[in-house]
Each structure stands twice: as structure tokens, then as C-alpha cells.
């Protein structure tokens, strides 16, 4: 008995609508091809989209943690086929599972027949015939099987093992502006595709202009004659409807689009368009206006990936490694809080490296130190610059401190060394020496 | 038609060729260092704007490229406009750039996974008018790649600086290979002049111009960039060029 149990009636329509909204969310964040996998899942075609999130596993972790934040428990898996991913996500024990293509057959063979997206009656019928796992079903001859329980299990098996293609029909928000073109003869040559994409971009930009919107994202769907859909996506740092620029960005992505035996339909969509109104500018040339970098930033971001084009702005911290944060490339970063007259090295190591030193305690700079097997005599030194731990970040930092020294060796190379601790009190640190960076 | 033989006629011809070249490269503009001893030895009395320049560190600087990065930052700090800095690893410390005259509002970083992507990003930045210049940290710089960058820089009149940075000291001999860059610099650390009290003085570099199109190679001892990116001659050696220190001779080229 569960005393606190709350019962709700099944609201199938409400669930479907919520799932649709979730699919739109996934489409915005992860990949143009996202769709509800009714009644309880989402399916996302991550082909060519995972690298924008730092890889497949990172993408799954990201999906799961974002869903968790809004109170949704999820199991996520990535596999070669929709059928396999569906089965692994629901019936394997792991919450996050990136299935290696080489073991996919073995992994799904162990899963129960119910993982195959079959109606309950078919699963029951298969159970009566003695089929418990997908592997057993896969091992039987398909012809007699289809005679006894229908063709559905055979088709689902083929889909799960990738012998039968299964296109994902992407969701489209009703307000999304689209431009589409169907071809009587399939097209495949890169130049032809580029030409039609350019035309569609121009059409879409005209439509955007009519409603004073600018695109933040463009998704192009290339529907192939074999019923697969290839996609290309570009993202912009600020809303735009400059047809030439968008066409150029999109055409750069075309090299990742495989037209196969030909593309019979191209659909171009601008989901999540934002307001962009006309602005009056000085016709004599506004020479004081800052250079508009958005075109360059967009080109580089679409090529290198999200988060790879950035500014480095100052963060409020005295610890050198925490004093720099990456900011979006188009943010205006006017102020910074870094000291201009204290020594700061040109290269700061991501991980300080331990060095062997000869130094007087408590506050003399080292007389010599050994780093990466090379012993260097210190000719002159400056310091210490004492930096205290940030107790508001972690309790362990409460008593900690570091003493930074700038030292120059005999050849003129300059290094930034620090001692973990104040040289007297063991509570302040290990009193070991590290090299933090190299000066110019 | 007889060939002009007199020196005056030859000079006139040279001037004409020079003019054609200047008109071709969209920018005969140069960026002076503000140090007479350097500027007077460079063609056009300064560092050409629409051109590719190579900068490498000497000795261990070939690995970390700290002085080379600071030298490049100092050059672009004196130009107008934003700077695109393309790199592979995020170990450049922004506060030091700010100290060399490049505050955060002037630098955009592009981080790429491989060298080909860095060269591509540099070229994209050079095509894009309105930047002061583009910096890229690369190990390999082939003739083709450098030629592309040089042409893109000539076309847009923006400066391209390739910081050569290798993973192993042995690879640094690569600096001897020919590229299409207009100049090639090497920056090595020298001991700073002793201060009357304890402490470290302004950093001092041995600045070698190893290769210069239409110019002579030279080397000079110089004090590192100040907060506005300006170099300075050490006071003790006002007009004297110092022989290279042991261990900092030119790499066998």
C-alpha cells in the first residue's frame, strides 16, 4: 500500500501535445530532425549534430541534465538506427548509453521482444510462441514467422538492425517560416544544390522581411529519392535576413550533405526567428560605429562549432586561472578588472606543473628551480604576490593562500612560480612549488 | 626599342614597378614600430600592413611562443580595429594581452582543432574587412598556405601574423623552410638589465629579422612592449647592435 499515491486520469492528448513541445525544444537545441516517439519518447537524428555539443556522449549528458532540471527523468541512448536506440534507451539498465556500432547487434539481441515497438497483442503472441529476446527472433526464419504473427515483427527487426531505412519526420512549429521546392527530376550536383539553396534563401528572406523577422537559425532538409532526409543547419549570433550572407553560410555546409541518388525536395525553415526591424543609418557613412563583426563570427562559429569563437573577459577573482572567462564573441566587453601593473604571464598553463626548488622560507623567492628536468638558476625575482583562497567558493579554500613570484633565469627566460601556502603555516597549503606560466 | 641603360632610367623603371606593385596590393600602408633603428631598415619605413608576417620564438620560445605572442600583440595594439586570434590550445593569458595593449574588447578568439582549420579561419578573417589584423598560432606553414594568406592579406590590406609554435624543439628547424611571408622574425629572451634594487626589470628581447622581402635581415636588442605595444631601445646600447648570445644563433637554415 502506498499512502501518498496520487492518481491522475490518462490525458493522452495532453501528453502528445507536451511531447510535441518537447520535440520542438530538442530541435531547437540539438538537431533539425527531432520528432516525438509516441507515447513516451523523443527521437533525434544526431548525424552531424553531436559535434556541436562536444561529442555524442556529452550531448546525451547534456540532454539528460537539462531534462532533469525541469523534473523529467530520462534514459538516453544513441545508436545507428532508430529501432536500436529506442530499444536500448528503454530496456538497457544504463541511463546514458552510446552504443558502439560494432556491438550493436549483440546489445539488442539480449533485449526483450517488447523493445521492438510492436503492439502488445503481437508481443503476447510472440511470447506464446516462445520468443523472449530479440536475438531469438532474429535467429528464426522470417518467412514462417511472418505467416504466423504478421509482417510487423520482421519489419521492426529489419529497422532495428539497419536493413530497412526508417525516415524520421521532423516536427515543425506552426509559426515557422519555410520555403520549399520540389523537383520533377532529382538533383545531385553540388552546384545545382547550391543554386537552389541560394534561391530558397532569397525567398525565405523576402518572407522574413515581410513580417520584420530575422533568422537566428536556418535548417535545410534535403529529402532524397530513397526517402532519407539529409539536413544542414546554420546558426547566427544575431538575427539576420541578409540573403547573400545566409546563402554563403549554408552553401558552406553543403559539403556535408550526401545527395545519394538525388534530392527530390528541399525545405528551408527558419525556426525561432526573432524580430528585426529596419534601422535608419547615416547615409553619409557612420564612421564612428564599431565594426560589425557578426558576419565573421557567424562564419567561424558555423565552421568551428558553438563556443569555439569567443572573447576573453575578466571575472571577479584574484586567482589567475579563475580571472578569465569566455564571453560570447559579439558581447561588448568594455571593462576589465585585470591589474595592468602586476606581472602577468603571456602563457598560463591549464594545469600548474610542480617544480623542484631551492628557496629560503618563509618569503624569499627560489634561488634555483628544476622544471621538466632542466635546472635553472634564478638571476633576479619579484614577489611575493599573495593570493588568498576564495572561501565563498569552497570551504577547503578558507585558509589557503598562494605566493606568486616572477623569476628570470640566466638566459633571460621569465617564469611565474608560486608556492602553495604562505611558507609558515601548514594550514595554508602544501608549501610545494609550482610553475603557473611563462612570461614574454 | 633599345633597353634603357643609364642608371637614372633604371631607377625610374624601378620606381614605376614599385608603384604598380603598391597599387596592386591595395595598401602600401605600413605600421611603423616607432623605433628608428628598426623602421629605417624596413622597406617603407615600417611593417607592411597588407602582408603576412611570421614570428617565432628562439630557443625554448619555439615551444611556448610567449615572447612571439607578446610581440605580435604589441604590433596589432598599435593598429586600429579588432583582432582575430586563432589558436589551438587555450593557454594564452588574456591579462597579459591587455598589458601589451590589446584589451578584451579588441580581441576575438577562434579555437580550432587542427592546423588546417586555423589557416582557414585566418584566411576567412583576412577576407573580412574591418579588422586590424589576424593572428594564428601554427606549427607548419607550407608554401601554399602562406601564399594564400599573403594574397588574402594583400587584397584586404589587413595584417596577418603567423606565430610559429612547435611541439618539439627539433621541429623548430622548420623555420628555415621558405614561405611566402613578407617578413620572418625571431624573438628570443635576453637577460634584462640589472636594477639598482632587487626585482625584475623590463623584459629584453633579441629581435632578429631573419628574412624580409625587398629588405635586409638584421638583429637588434630591444626592450619588450609597454602597455601601448611600443618597443624601446635599451638605454645602455642606444645605437649599437649586439652580437647574438651563445645558444641563440640562427637555426641552420
Features:
heterodimer; A: 440 residues; Dna Ligase, domain 1; six-stranded antiparallel beta barrel; 29% strand; B: 253 residues; alpha/beta; Rossmann fold; two-stranded antiparallel sheet; 7 helices; 10 strands; 28% helix
Q: Can you give a write-up of this model?
A:
- The complex is a heterodimer of chains A (440) and B (253).
- Chain A has eleven helices and 17 strands.
- With 440 residues, chain A is an alpha+beta fold.
- Chain A has four domains: 15-160, Alpha-Beta Plaits; 177-275, Dna Ligase, domain 1 (2-Layer Sandwich), CATH 3.30.1490; 309-337, no CATH class; 347-438, no CATH class.
- Chain A has a six-stranded antiparallel β-barrel. In chain A, strands 5, 6, 7, 8 and 9 form a five-stranded antiparallel beta sheet that branches.
- The termini of chain A are far apart.
- The mean pLDDT of chain A is 87.
- Chain B is α/β, with parallel strands linked by helices and 253 residues long.
- Helix content of chain B is 28%, strand content 22%.
- In chain B, helix 6 packs parallel to helix 7.
- Residues 242-253 of chain B have low confidence and may be disordered.
- Chains A and B meet through helix 11, strand 10, strand 11, strand 12 and strand 14 of A and helix 4, helix 5, strand 5, helix 6 and strand 8 of B.
How would you concisely characterize the structure shown here?
The complex is a heterodimer of chains A (440) and B (253). Chain A is of the alpha+beta class. Helices cover 28% and strands 29% of the residues of chain A.
CATH architecture of chain B: 3-Layer(aba) Sandwich
Average pLDDT confidence of chain B is 85
Name the helix and strand elements of chain B from N-terminus to C-terminus, one letter apiece.
HEHEEHHEHEHEHEEEE
Helicity of chain A, as a percent range: 25-40%
Helix content of chain B: 25-40%
What's the number of structural domains of chain B?
Answer: 1
Largest sheet descriptor of chain A: 6 strands, antiparallel, barrel
Report the radius of gyration of chain A as a whole number of Å. 30 Å
Q: List the helices and strands of chain A in order.
A: HEEHEHEHHHHHEHEEHEEHEEEEEEEE
Strands of chain B, count:
10
Sequence of strands across the biggest β-sheet of chain B? 5-4-6-7-3-8-9-10
Tertiary shape of chain B: globular
Instruction: Give the helix/strand class of chain B.
Output: alpha/beta
Judging from the principal axes of the Cα atoms, what is the shape of chain A? globular
CATH class categorisation of the largest domain in chain A: Alpha Beta
CATH topology of chain B, by name, is Rossmann fold
The name of the CATH architecture of the largest domain in chain A is: 2-Layer Sandwich
% residues in beta strands of chain A? 25-35%
Largest interface: A-B, 54 and 61 residues
Amino acid at each position: 500500500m502506498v499512502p501518498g499515491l496520487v492518481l491522475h486520469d490518462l490525458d493522452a492528448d495532453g501528453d502528445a501535445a507536451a511531447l510535441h513541445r518537447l520535440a520542438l525544444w530538442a530541435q531547437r537545441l540539438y538537431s533539425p530532425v527531432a520528432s516525438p516517439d509516441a507515447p513516451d519518447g523523443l527521437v533525434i537524428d544526431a548525424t552531424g549534430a553531436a559535434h556541436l555539443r562536444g561529442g555524442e556522449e556529452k550531448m546525451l549528458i547534456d540532454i539528460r541534465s537539462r531534462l532533469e532540471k525541469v523534473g523529467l527523468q530520462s534514459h538516453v541512448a544513441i545508436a545507428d538506427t532508430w529501432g536500436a536506440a529506442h530499444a536500448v534507451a528503454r530496456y538497457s539498465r544504463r541511463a546514458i548509453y552510446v552504443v558502439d556500432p560494432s556491438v550493436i547487434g549483440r546489445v539488442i539481441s539480449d533485449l526483450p521482444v517488447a523493445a521492438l515497438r510492436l503492439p502488445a497483442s503481437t508481443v503476447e503472441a510472440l511470447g506464446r510462441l516462445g520468443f523472449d529476446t530479440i536475438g531469438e527472433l532474429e535467429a528464426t526464419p522470417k518467412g514462417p514467422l511472418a505467416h504466423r504473427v504478421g509482417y510487423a515483427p520482421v519489419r521492426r527487426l529489419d529497422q532495428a538492425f539497419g536493413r530497412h531505412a526508417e525516415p524520421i519526420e521532423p516536427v515543425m512549429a506552426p509559426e515557422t517560416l519555410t520555403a520549399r521546392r520540389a523537383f520533377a527530376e532529382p538533383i545531385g550536383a553540388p552546384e545545382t544544390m547550391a543554386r537552389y539553396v541560394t534561391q530558397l534563401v532569397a525567398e525565405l528572406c523576402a518572407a522574413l522581411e515581410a513580417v520584420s523577422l530575422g533568422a537566428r537559425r536556418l535548417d535545410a532538409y534535403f529529402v532524397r529519392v530513397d526517402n532519407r532526409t539529409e539536413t544542414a543547419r546554420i546558426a547566427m549570433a544575431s538575427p539576420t535576413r541578409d540573403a547573400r550572407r545566409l546563402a554563403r553560410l549554408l552553401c558552406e555546409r553543403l559539403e556535408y550533405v550526401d545527395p545519394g541518388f538525388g534530392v527530390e525536395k528541399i525545405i528551408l525553415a527558419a525556426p525561432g526567428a526573432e524580430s528585426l526591424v529596419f534601422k535608419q543609418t547615416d547615409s553619409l557613412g557612420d564612421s564612428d560605429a564599431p565594426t560589425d563583426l557578426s558576419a565573421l563570427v557567424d562564419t567561424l562559429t558555423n565552421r568551428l562549432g558553438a563556443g569555439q569563437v569567443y572573447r576573453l573577459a575578466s571575472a571577479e577573482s584574484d586567482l589567475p586561472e579563475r580571472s578569465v572567462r569566455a564571453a560570447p564573441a559579439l558581447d561588448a566587453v568594455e571593462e576589465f578588472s585585470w591589474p595592468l601593473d602586476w606581472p602577468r604571464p603571456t602563457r598560463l598553463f591549464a594545469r600548474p606543473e610542480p617544480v623542484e626548488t631551492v628557496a629560503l622560507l618563509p618569503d624569499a623567492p627560489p634561488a634555483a628551480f628544476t622544471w621538466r628536468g632542466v635546472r635553472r638558476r634564478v638571476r633576479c625575482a619579484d614577489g611575493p604576490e599573495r593570493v588568498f583562497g576564495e572561501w565563498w567558493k569552497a570551504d577547503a579554500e578558507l585558509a589557503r593562500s598562494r605566493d606568486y613570484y616572477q623569476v628570470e633565469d640566466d638566459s633571460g627566460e621569465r617564469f611565474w612560480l608560486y608556492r602553495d601556502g604562505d611558507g609558515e603555516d601548514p594550514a595554508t597549503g602544501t608549501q610545494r612549488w609550482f610553475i603557473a606560466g611563462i612570461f614574454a | 626599342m633599345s633597353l634603357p641603360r643609364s642608371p637614372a632610367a633604371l631607377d625610374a623603371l624601378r620606381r614605376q614597378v614599385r608603384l604598380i606593385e603598391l597599387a596592386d596590393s591595395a595598401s602600401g600602408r605600413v605600421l611603423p614600430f616607432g623605433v628608428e633603428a628598426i623602421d629605417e631598415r624596413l622597406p617603407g619605413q615600417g611593417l607592411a600592413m597588407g602582408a603576412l608576417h611570421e614570428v617565432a620564438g628562439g630557443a625554448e620560445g619555439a615551444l611556448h611562443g610567449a615572447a612571439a605572442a607578446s610581440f605580435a600583440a604589441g604590433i596589432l595594439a598599435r593598429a586600429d580595429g579588432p583582432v582575430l586570434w586563432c589558436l589551438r590550445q587555450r593557454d594564452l593569458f588574456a591579462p597579459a594581452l591587455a598589458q601589451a595593449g590589446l584589451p578584451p574588447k579588441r580581441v576575438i578568439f577562434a579555437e580550432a582543432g587542427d592546423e588546417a582549420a586555423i589557416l582557414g579561419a585566418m584566411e576567412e578573417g583576412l577576407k573580412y574587412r574591418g579588422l586590424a589584423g589576424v593572428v594564428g598560432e601554427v606549427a607548419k606553414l607550407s608554401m601554399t598556405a602562406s601564399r594564400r594568406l599573403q594574397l588574402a592579406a594583400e587584397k584586404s590590406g589587413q595584417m596577418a601574423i603567423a606565430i610559429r609554435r612547435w611541439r618539439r624543439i627539433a621541429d623548430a628547424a622548420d623555420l628555415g623552410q621558405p614561405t611566402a611571408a613578407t617578413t620572418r622574425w625571431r624573438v628570443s629572451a635576453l637577460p634584462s638589465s640589472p636594477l639598482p634594487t632587487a626585482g625584475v626589470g623590463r623584459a629584453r628581447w633579441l629581435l632578429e629579422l631573419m628574412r624580409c622581402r625587398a629588405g635586409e635581415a638584421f638583429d637588434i636588442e630591444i626592450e619588450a612592449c609597454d602597455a601601448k605595444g611600443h618597443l624601446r631601445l635599451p638605454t645602455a646600447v642606444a645605437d649599437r647592435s649586439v652580437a647574438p648570445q651563445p645558444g641563440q644563433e640562427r637555426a641552420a637554415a
